[in-house]
């Protein structure tokens, strides 16, 4: 295989992989300063987080962009007239090792279009990971995409060689999936997820008894949802996330705004991309559910189906629940402290620690890192200097926005001006 052909395949298959955000990707600017193989710039290097929280750079590619399916939202769909390519198993192994040796990457993110069948494709993805681990002694990070509908045996093997597995839900509702990806069924995603969840539990339990038990997908499993392709509101999206977090022990759900690329009357028109702010608000809500003790129904429900774009979801909740405030930071429990706008979990823990020694005032809170421009309307402390009383939620929101220097406020006004 010539160097040019490998480079061409890499260009096609790294480009096709960029639509999958389930490995927290971002581009790389690393150039090859020698005359070695490849130049990492624009060639699918992304970053991800390992089990222990380290940020690692990954080679992010598809095994192939041939696909037997025709999902309307996907560039790789069979009816799309694009350049196609496929790597052989050994080529991906060689690329990974070569990039690793040149210090371009610390691991591999490997996904694929479905060629022939789910098992035929999955078998090849597993073969790459297996060769890397057993033949090349590769100990870097491996994230394998699970192919919907892959058999239990292959999923079991995949987790023995990969650090993380993910299968994409793609569309938040079954009706949306039916409309845009008629070849796919919800069960095809759920089956591998259940298998991975059960294997993780079983291997962990066995490891407690037999120390030599290998690790199974130690970085867990994740998924991705495409936002804005099938008209779901934020309430439906976050309900789906909540369901998958609770039932399949997912580490992360990723939200990827759909960028209209084709004329298809089932899809939003070209030029109506999902505002980045919406993605951002969904991630914030996800964070509130996982780390701040919020139930999804507190933030989104039948009466409130869309997240506010101009304020973050915690502030939105606080403004709708002013009867819960002000909170005394010197006596409130952790749950309530976490609900104060402007307080991250780091600040919450610092407050709990610091108040063991003294009663806290505004100066202390400022030093702790509390964003007082938001928090001041919702708290009381050991000083009544800034206390604001009897303000309506509209008034508070107006004051906060007026004093906000947030980049989101800036980008919101840019985005809204497009509709002006
Ligand atoms: S199965 Fe996957 S790769 Fe194939 S068209 Fe659907 S989303 Fe794209």
UniProtKB/TrEMBL annotation:
CDD domains per record: Radical_SAM (cd01335)
UniProt keyword list: Iron, Iron-sulfur, Metal-binding, S-adenosyl-L-methionine
Domain Radical SAM core: 62-197
Cofactor(s), names only, from the UniProt record: [4Fe-4S] cluster
Keyword Iron-sulfur included in the entry's annotation: yes
Signal peptide: none
Superkingdom per UniProt: Bacteria
GO molecular function list: catalytic activity; iron-sulfur cluster binding; metal ion binding
Pfam families: Radical_SAM
UniProt-listed InterPro entries: Aldolase_TIM (IPR013785), DNA_rSAM_put (IPR023874), Endo/Exo/Phosphatase_dom_1 (IPR051675), rSAM (IPR007197), rSAM_sf (IPR058240), RuvA_2-like (IPR010994)
PANTHER family recorded: ENDONUCLEASE/EXONUCLEASE/PHOSPHATASE FAMILY DOMAIN-CONTAINING PROTEIN 1 (PTHR21180), TYPE II SECRETION SYSTEM PROTEIN K (PTHR21180:SF9)
Listed name of the protein: Putative DNA modification/repair radical SAM protein
